[in-house]
Amino acid sequence: MTKRLDMNQIVSKLGAMMLIGVLITSVGTTQVFADWDKTVYPAIQGTIPIADGEDYTMKNKISLVEAMTIAENILPNSKALYGKLTVVNGYLVYKVFMSNDDREYNKILVDAGSGDELYVSDTITKNSHKKRFHKDKAHNKKMKDYFKGMTPEQITEKKKQFKEMGDAWKSISLQDRAFMILHFMQMKMQWDSMSDDEKTVKKAEMKKQWEEYLPMSVEEKKQKLTDYIQSLRN
């Protein structure tokens, strides 16, 4: 009984966490996110060296919200959609994913010790990542399957709803975005501990909830996020 209660509590939160995940990726960044950890970064000189296999989770001297703030100062016309603490070329850094209103993207590396800018990627434009989508057979099949049976008008409306999900995510404060990213990571660890059968059932439940969120207005989606964040802070 205790395990079942714990799992139910996890899943009740995962519904909201799924919303966060799709908010981030529905801005049109799916393929860019797929390449998130495939980027070959240049040599960098950080302040916190990390050996292979070393636990670095408590070695950062600045927080995620500080790293995201620094990234937004570097690119003031963009928003920090996602960030994480990780090791690049032997040094502890925050990877921060940025997007602007023209759906152009950049990746920024921020030193996890000093907060210094270590790397800013070239801008990935809407047209350039569309070309990458076109070449990505797995992505194309996924999109084709998702839109299967829809009319052109329905597909257009669905894409509009996806964009609004991203707009809602970008509209909340940077502090709230950072808070939810960290919370999402914690919930993902609990999700990874669930059995395959439990995941299958819960994925179906979350898909249903996702479809309920989509038709909401940007303001309604933003309010959903705000209310959920407030409930976690209380």
Structure characterization notes:
The protein has 9 helices and 4 strands. It has 234 residues and is α+β, with helices and mostly antiparallel strands. The chain has one domain. The protein has a 4-stranded antiparallel sheet with strand order 1-2-3-4, with helices on one face.
Task: Give a topology summary.
Layout: H1 2-25, H2 30-34, H3 64-74, E1 78-88, E2 91-100, E3 105-111, E4 117-120, H4 126-135, H5 137-147, H6 152-171, H7 174-192, H8 196-213, H9 218-233
Antiparallel strand pairs: 1-2, 2-3, 3-4
- Lateral arrangement of strands in the main beta sheet: 1-2-3-4
Distance between the termini: 27 Å
Helix content: 55-70%
How many helical stretches? 9
Structural class: alpha+beta
User: Taking all residues together, what is the mean pLDDT?
Assistant: 80
Order of helices and strands: HHHEEEEHHHHHH
> How many whole angstroms does the radius of gyration measure?
19 Å
* Number of strand segments: 4
State which percent range the strand residues make up: 5-15%
Oligomer: single chain
Describe the largest sheet: 4 strands, antiparallel
Shape: globular
Overall number of domains: 1
The stretches of 5 or more residues where confidence is low (pLDDT under 50) are: 1-15, 22-31
